[in-house]
Fold each of these.
Amino acid sequence: MIATLLIALAAGCASALMFASIISGALISLLLFYLAPLPLMVAAIGWGPLSATVGGIAAAIGLGAIFGLPYCIAFAVTVAVPAWWLGHLALLGRSIASDVSSADGAAPVAPDLEWYPVGRILLWIGAFAALTTMAALLTLSTDADAITGALRRFLLRMLDLRDAAPSAETERWIDALVNIAPSAAALVAMATLTLNLFLAAKITATSGRLHRPWPNLKSAALPPMTLAALCVAIALCFTGGLLAILAQIVTATLMMAYALVGFAVLHTLTLALKSRAVWLGCTYVVVAVFGWPVLAMVALGLADAVFGLRQRYLQGRPPPLPAS
């Protein structure tokens, strides 16, 4: 118990320091800031959600005492709560078979466990990314024009154009950046939360602290109603005002979720290729370098949701599964 408590406090201290490093303004602090949930997620998956709860509370109180209440609330909402809940979901399972004794008196059959689906965890990650982005925007104002103006002033300050009159071309670029800023922030939040959870699971699996089998990520799928929610969110993007901005955030997170499913589809459809590693590696490099090719992964994820590409492929030509 004492060891678990010490681990929880150490995870909380590490997470708080990584979160507070953004104050320094150094470039490396941005990476540390985005990885702030990682220590608490490792504690949650390796030592239980209660460990992440203790560490998160201690870290939030420490940040509040040093930097003030806003930092305490920001850490709790963006780091501690997502790390605790996602770690809880990663270990959530239910029995799908009751203990049954064999007729010849043999030992009872141990029940199988059904673990919380990866696709639903992706939805939770998207929900946290959308809610934290919305909360950040609503701290600026509840009026769409005021939010746009605040984002515009922030961009002008970043580009050091507060005193000089920007050219027409620069104005168009700034307007475009202001329009996509909420969606881009939601995408970054979802990508970093997903990466943190994946790294935390890998770390605990490597150390032998992962108390569940490694999930089959190639079979990850979103619930069917997600597609209907995406259609509604896209329709609301054309309403205008604050509702349109919030709908854009939801649309961005759901499309990112389908992009991640698209990668799972790609891993399945390339199982039989001899040069599979090369194709997958090139795809990840192209997406990471250029960014916009992720739209192809979104399309692949949506096509699988509508047409069942993986199911058709595996039924028509079941390939030999690789060992790893």
Amino acid sequence: MKKVALVTGAKGGIGSAITKGLVEEGYRVVAAFSPGNEACAQDWFAENNYTADQVRMLALDVTDTEMCKSALLQLTQEEGSVDVLVNNAGITRDSVFKRMEANQWTDVINTNLNSLFNVTQPLFAAMCEKGNGRIINISSVNGVKGQFGQANYSAAKAGMIGFTKALAFEGAKSGTTVNAIAPGYTATPMVEAIRPEVLESIKAEIPMKRLATPEEIAGAVIYLASDVGGYITGETLSLNGGLYMQ
């Protein structure tokens, strides 16, 4: 029987690579997407030539506590269990803090940080009871080092790392691991749409002089989800080309 992996933000650049990588490893992936984007989600499913056995699409508002509780209860009843959870959903609403609006702050905190409670809490107890759950939270280099104009985003992604460390303590005795990945600048369609001169200046600051590929981030997820990654917990794996070294 296939292991089940739930990926939030599954249609994005990194989320798509994670979904593809997990499918190739034999997982049945539940690909969560924002409600109201059903047509786009089905197009994405078709473009990737997935079958219903490989990928199940799930409309899920990660900012809605009650919706997550209800939808994930139904999911576990229908799928049996969720073995791997990848908290990947995230948005940006960049602004210098002195001009940041309250909604720019709350939108980012709700989607990037509060979603961790909404999605993880309904699944965590069952993972611990089963004894080998994997929770992988996609943070950011800017949650580690901070970034001008991203007080909201950096706060949320730093909070994700704190959440990872704390929950790792709770899951350790049952064999459920909780880890974070902090990617640097990654070659997603959103990043590659940046003006060429700005993109080149970003690459110039990275010691490896290139962006990460989404597949490199997905590879780290697959490792942490695997049996051989079972002795790593509470850690943050930085994939940033040397941009920030701790």
